[in-house]
Amino acid sequence: QVQLVESGGGLVQAGGSLRLSCEASSSIFGLTTMGWYRQAPGKQREPVATITRAGSTNYADSVKGRFTISTDNPQNTLYLQMDSLKPEDTAVYYCKFTGARSASYFEDYWGKGTLVTVSL
């Protein structure tokens, strides 16, 4: 199975910036979408930003205008540029790659997460 490894998390003061990276161990067959999700203690995991292979992006309302999702070329690495960070952004951030084996069979690959802590 393909492995995804996140990096770039850490401690930052409110108003600061971080860039997260997610590297795939190999190319994913039928890659369709990539995304970042986050989970704060005691809360459900929620989507933050997604990007399609064609480059279309979507963002959660809470991060619009502050976060930017992007990929390299070839698309083995996913990035999340986080600016103007707020304490409520504190969470474990996970990356996900989705591959379509067929029109009805999709496979999700998840990283193990990287912790982002935003202090006051």
Q: What descriptors fit this protein?
A:
seven-stranded mixed beta sheet, mainly beta, single chain, four-stranded antiparallel beta sheet
Protein model, in words:
The mean pLDDT is about 95. The protein has strands spanning about 5, 10-15, 20-25, 30-40, 45-50, 55-60, 65-70, 75-80, 90-100, 105-110, 115-120. By secondary structure, it is an all-beta fold. Strands 2, 4, 5, 6, 9, 10 and 11 form a seven-stranded mixed β-sheet that branches. About 0% of the residues lie in helices and about 55% in strands.
Short description:
The protein has 120 residues and is mainly β. It contains no helices and 11 strands. The strands form 2 sheets. Strands 2, 4, 5, 6, 9, 10 and 11 form a 7-stranded mixed sheet that branches.
Secondary structure layout plus pairing:
Layout: E1 4-7, E2 10-13, E3 18-24, E4 31-39, E5 46-52, E6 57-59, E7 67-71, E8 77-82, E9 91-100, E10 106-110, E11 114-119
Parallel strand pairs: 2-11
Antiparallel strand pairs: 1-3, 3-8, 4-5, 4-9, 5-6, 7-8, 9-10, 9-11
What's the end-to-end separation, in Å? Answer: 40 Å
| β-sheet strand percentage | over 45%
Q: Which structural class fits the helix and strand makeup?
A: mainly beta
DSSP E strands, number: 11
Low-pLDDT residue spans: none
Spatial extent as radius of gyration: 14 Å
Query: Helices and strands, in N-to-C order?
Result: EEEEEEEEEEE
Q: Using the alpha-carbon principal axes, give the shape.
A: elongated
**What is the residue-mean pLDDT, rounded to a whole number?**
95
Number of helices: 0
Largest sheet: 7 strands, mixed
DSSP helix fraction: under 10%
